[in-house]
Amino acid sequence: MAQTGIVVMGGSGRMGRMLCALIDGAEDMRLVAVTEASGHAWVGTDYGTATGGAATGVPVTDDAARVVAGADAVIDFTTPSATVAMARLCAEAGCAHVIGTTGLTAEDIAAIDTAAEQTAIVRAGNMSLGVNLLTQLVRRVAASLDADYDIEIVEAHHRHKVDAPSGTALMLGEAAAEGRGVDLDAMADRGRDGITGAREPGRIGFHAIRGGDVIGDHDVIFMADGERLTLRHQASDRSVFARGALKAALWAQGRPPGAYDMLDVLGLR
To answer: Which domain, by its residues, includes 11?
Structure first.
């Protein structure tokens, strides 16, 4: 069986380690290399020994250009600046790029979309099947309920998460805005503090909770006089994101250049 060669960015992190472990146990893919930032203690070592096990022959390197040239796909749950730089490298090498990085700006996304003119890039704020089904439900409900229903999005994550709202919350907000036929940037309410006055009609509210080891909880609440409808997704195991990313890496093989997301991967578009 031909194996898809994968590079994992940031293999020392929680998601990186999980991705590497899943790849190691798969028959249709192999781990080509792990990348880390220059100066990281693992750079120049074998990934197996770096994680406390036997040598595997998989290098940990800060020379991303070299290892991407010999890979079929890169999986990336890192930082916006690293992701944009990797997108350019993948475009030059014709290597598929799967992006789960959050906190991307409009400028970052534009740079990634430019790279996608040369290679297949799958970018999603959340890689799980359940969340991507939820976005479809949110879009449909938002389109079905009129403006008498206020929309609020509440998300909770572990204390170490550095961006807010989460990428998933923004995905859900985009789905709600699309259902309503409005622009999210114009209608988003990112926080309330002090004497804010009455809620403005049509706004889409976001609220971020941080604490403990919460993997990811997301509620989309539609509220009108006399009733509330809540659509909820709760992640209890981080592997749902890793498995989705690996599915995307396999799906991207042989695809024409373009900017894709998990709805494409899952056949939900």
So the answer is: 4-123+238-265
Q: What is the mean pLDDT of residues 217-241?
A: 96
Per-residue pLDDT averaged across 100-107, rounded?
Answer: 92
Q: What number of CA atoms fall less than 13 Å from residue 121's CA on the CB side?
A: 29
Other beta carbons within 10 angstroms of residue 97's beta carbon come to 30
In the chain, beta strands by DSSP E: 4-9, 29-35, 60-61, 73-76, 96-99, 120-123, 150-157, 188-189, 204-210, 216-224, 227-235, 258-260
Domain count, the chain: 2
Specify the CATH number for the domain of residue 29: 3.40.50.720
Q: What is the DSSP letter of 74?
A: E
Catalytic residue annotation: 157, 161
Q: Is the pLDDT of residue 268 over 90?
A: no
